[in-house]
Amino acid sequence: MRPEDLQLLTTPGTVAVSGDLVLVSIATPDLDKNTYRGGLHRVFPDGTTSPWTHGDRDNAQRISPDGRLVAFLRVAGKSKPQIYVAPVDGGEPRRLTDLPLGAGAPVWSPDSSRLAFVARVPEDGRYGTTDDGPEAEAPRRITRLDYRVDDVGFLADRRPRLHVVDLDGVVAEVTDGSFDVSDPAWIDSETLVFVAPRDLGAVETLHSSLYTVPAAGGEVSLLVRGSGEASMPFVAGSSLYYLGTEFTGIDAVARNHGLWKVPLDGSAEPVRLTDVETVDVERLSGQPVADAAGVLLVVRNRGALELQRIPFDGGPGEVLVGGSQAVKFFATDGSSVVAVVSTPDSPGQVLLVDSGVRTAFSSVDARRVVELNGSASDGYPVHGWLVLPDGDGPHPVVLAVHGGPFMYHSWGFFDEAQVYASAGYAVVLPNPRGSAGYGQSHGQAVIGKFGTVDVDDVLSLLDVALAREDTDSERVGVMGGSYGGFMTSWLSAHHGERFKAAWSERAVNAWDSFSGSSDIGYFFADAYCGTDPEAQRAMSPLTYAEKINLPFAVVHSEQDWRCPLEQAQRMFVALKRRGVEAEMLIFPGEGHELTRSGQPRHRKQRFDAVLEWWARYLNC
């Protein structure tokens, strides 16, 4: 895969099913127009497909309970997403909303008469509500710590509100914007349940609760006071199910999400149905949903994303889709189950689970992926993958550390590793302690211990890869983004003799300034490193910048509010002043998600820069 091959990747996203109607959204980068394109496609029982809509970007499709209509989000050009509906048997889609900041994913009422959704409502005079530019806006008065978030921006002047729209396009605001709302669901055709911060966000909190409100508007009532983070509620029978964690204070990091159940009538306390240590539900793969036999959801398991069915009263899950693959999205109509599955050689296929029929979309030739296992110096098992170039080698090696840290490399298609392997590099993908999908204790092993067991695990897996005859231990580079950027900086300072060069991207380099500049810094640094400034300093790569002597690339996005630009600037200046061969590459207008969802041209330009860097220092 070459950088320009980005535009050859057609990636399926959301999926919906009702009887023999299966609809999947697809997205393809368009380098010429510098955007993403894709409509909804119908998947037939034999695996063939045909376009179902022809919008620029259509997604978040939902088929009405009565099976007559499909609601979805459409983005045209540079406009904001709006809700459209179309008959299932064809016809021109009809727009239901025209909101200044766009609409969120639609959720059908049980009687198919209305749709609930969340939308941010701007203050008058802001965000394009007048013809004046932002320089004409009044100043923002900030009184809380949770005042902005990456890839969204400032929050208090465009709070999300719960809305309902009928099929005539009449939109009603159900909440008033005095508190945040998310994840709406219908209890019945007249009542909604939604997620909001505990005590409706009266003060900053990482806890969330579940509330109800009449669909016509009215008094908000507490349904479930969350014991941690609550999300994705839905009703099955006489019970409410949702995903949640448990913690106190700010100790929210590295917590497994589990499935919870509570009676709708409030006759009992919520019960966790999945094991807190071993089951971690992947929320990015979509809303859990019930069929006749249990609750379907996706579980992280050693790099696999498994579609499982959890019994209604709890217990071990039945694996419906597992093995060496990653379920990216799924849906059921109560009988048929459909999943979007990514594999090492495919960004996504639509799998009709009952028949086993798969539908693939356009992709590229992929390089071979090999699973690696070994042991750290303390005997702890280490696990990851090696993506190999063509030929016998020995190949130069790139160690690529993931972000998070409570995330993971997976069995799914990884475009970055494929690009590097196609250029001749063997790519090592470790899941060290701190990663998700190996048990909650594995994820929490780095709390207060950054730069210890995680480093041991990463280097131990690298040693497993370098013991192979097809890898070259004399030509090794290290790279990573976010926490992976932190690890790149740390390894360069403490184990620089093992690497020829480093590529540190959107990194955390100094916890002191991160605490005050990151959107999550006010709690994240303390939760992972503790509150002692000296402990935070000891876990900051910038503290050891004088030990970095290898060629070092500092790469960052200009609008990154998760790991702000100052994290890159401080490291670059510290290295440059010492005469280190350092460069800084800054991408205008991008946030923390550049490598995954940034503008297609910037993604290609980044790939070009990465390959030029490794060609320069690894002589490939």
Automatic annotation (TrEMBL):
One Pfam assignment: Peptidase_S9
An example Gene Ontology molecular-function term: aminopeptidase activity
Keyword terms of this UniProt record: Aminopeptidase, Hydrolase, Protease, Serine protease
UniProt xrefs under InterPro entries: 6-blade_b-propeller_TolB-like, AB_hydrolase_fold, Peptidase_S9_cat, WD40
Residues in Peptidase S9 prolyl oligopeptidase catalytic domain copies: 411-619
Biological process, per Gene Ontology: proteolysis
Keyword Hydrolase in record: yes
Protein name per UniProt: Dipeptidyl aminopeptidase
